[in-house]
Write a structure and sequence with these properties.
Pfam families: PHP. It comes from Dovyalis caffra. This is Polymerase/histidinol phosphatase N-terminal domain-containing protein. The protein is α/β, with parallel strands linked by helices and 452 residues long. Helix 2 runs parallel beside helix 13, helix 4 runs parallel beside helix 5 and helix 15 runs antiparallel to helix 17. Helix 4 links the parallel strand 1 and strand 2. Strands 1, 2, 3, 4, 5, 6, 7 and 8 form an 8-stranded mixed sheet that branches. The protein binds zinc ion (2 copies). One zinc ion binds next to loops.
């Protein structure tokens, strides 16, 4: 959540991308909590079915060894896979996180995460690296993005930043170019905005160098508020990041500046149109959650974050119920280190919540995948192929005879994301037939790292 909007000392979210709460969970606590929730309580039938369905999706591409003699399929699955951790909100160096996408994946794996959504601010540039690393560790990446927007009610004083999370399939956004243009505009706005903040600081007799900020942000990364704050700490103008925000950079603060953000409803609509699941991030950081949720629900919002490391927030959970929204959540991990940040994978999402998420997401993702392959079948260009392989981590081996035509590609992609039945629908079979005549041009495509 850090960076663009939600950092506001008056709200209950702090500069560390976490939420101030009486019980701040730390790593140890989180482990304890998980153990407690794990095996001792007996599952209800609903929970057991949800658990089974979620497990099946998570391990779609992996053969389950089923012991038919003793327990039967269901029991064996549940015993072998005792927990599935989803981390649905994380940041890498591609925006304002501290870890590279591959390091982030490594850390996720170390923390027992099985499904990781990389949701950098206004960019999906870290996804290919994350997907490739995820193949090494046998975990699934949900290609995601956290979009910076500004809610703009009639009363301009009630304007406030809103972050929308988008979750896509292994094929990525259905109309990637359109989404990318949308995100690029926000990123360009962030450059201007960071420049404006530096200018304001200079006027406040804190002469910060623009080069300093861009150096901290790193090559090709749109600088944000956190990068400005880090430069301020390094220059010795403030003692720590918290002070930089509390004194200068908070929403409406003396060095605060707005960027070029779209309206949240525009972001939600575009996510829906490009085959993604749209989720409102950290609603507890909002001044006007009800007005915003109302408007976004009309625009097609699917869910909202209500779970944090310290548990479910009843008030937002009730709001989600009232508006028929999915109840999700993630750690919003930035990799800063230290105790003030919730650990990656520390948000415990119940199997029923994950099952509900997948029930909504999978038909959306199915349509997006179909759409993407339809486009490729119509126009089997290298650029369309590159777009598919980029998000799915389905790299093509040079000289690999097992993947010589478009049908092989679609089979490989689908096995990671769709069940056999989903992959065998008439629609997809028709596309596959078309693609069986399409030779894959292997020139210029990287040699993959193959698992197994
Ligand atoms: Zn975030
Ligand atoms: Zn955020």
């Amino acid at each position: 959540m850090v960076d663009v909007g939600c950092v506001n000392p008056s709200s209950n979210c702090n500069i560390n991308g976490n939420q101030e709460s009486p019980k701040k969970p730390k790593d140890k606590k989180m482990k304890k909590k998980k153990k407690r929730g794990g095996s001792k309580k007996k599952m209800t039938v609903e929970q057991a079915l949800a658990f089974k369905a979620v497990n099946e999706w998570v391990y779609l591409d992996q053969q389950l060894v089923v012991d038919d003699f003793d327990f039967g399929v269901q029991k064996t699955v549940m015993m072998r896979r005792d927990k599935v951790v989803f981390e649905l909100h994380s940041h890498s160096k591609s925006s304002d996180g501290f870890l590279s996408p591959s390091k982030l994946v490594e850390r996720a794996h170390g923390n027992g995460v099985k499904v990781l959504a990389l949701t950098d601010h206004d960019t999906m540039s870290g996804i290919p690296e994350a997907t490739e690393a995820a193949r090494r560790f046998g975990i699934k990446i949900i290609p995601g993005v956290e979009i910076s927007t500004i809610f703009s009610p009639r009363n301009p004083e009630a304007e406030e930043p809103v972050h929308i999370l988008a979750y896509y399939s292994s094929g990525g956004p259905a109309r990637f170019d359109e989404l990318e243009r949308f995100l690029a505009k926000i990123r360009d706005g962030r450059y201007l905005r960071a420049k404006e903040m530096v200018l304001k600081l200079n006027k406040l007799k804190l002469p910060l160098k623009w080069e300093h900020v861009t150096r901290i942000a790193g090559k090709g990364v749109a600088p944000g508020r956190l990068h400005v704050a880090r430069a301020m700490v390094e220059a010795g103008y403030v003692e720590n990041l918290k002070q930089a925000f509390a004194r200068y950079l908070y929403d409406g603060g003396p060095a605060y500046s707005t960027g070029n953000e779209p309206l949240p409803e525009e972001a939600v609509q575009l996510i829906c149109e490009t085959g993604g699941v749209a989720v409102l991030a950290h609603p507890w950081a909002l001044k006007n959650p009800v007005a915003i949720i109302q408007r976004l629900k009309d625009a097609g919002l699917h869910g909202m974050e209500v779970y944090r490391s310290d548990g479910k927030l009843a008030v937002y959970s009730d709001l989600a119920d009232a508006y028929g929204l999915l109840k999700l959540g993630g750690s919003d991990y930035h990799g800063r280190g230290g105790n003030s940040e919730s650990a990656l994978g520390s948000v415990s999402l119940p199997a029923v919540a994950l099952h509900d998420f997948l029930k909504v997401a999978r038909p959306i993702w199915y349509r997006a995948i179909k759409n993407i392959f339809e486009r490729y079948a119509e126009e089997p260009s290298d650029s369309n192929l590159a777009r598919i392989t980029k998000f799915g981590g389905t790299k093509i081996l040079k000289g690999n005879s097992s993947m010589s035509c478009g049908k092989d590609l679609i089979d490989r992609c689908l096995s990671l994301w769709l069940t056999t039945e989903e992959g065998q629908t008439c629609d997809l079979e028709a596309i596959k037939t078309k693609l069986s005549y399409v030779k894959i041009n292997q020139g210029g495509i990287h040699v993959p790292i193959e698992r197994n």
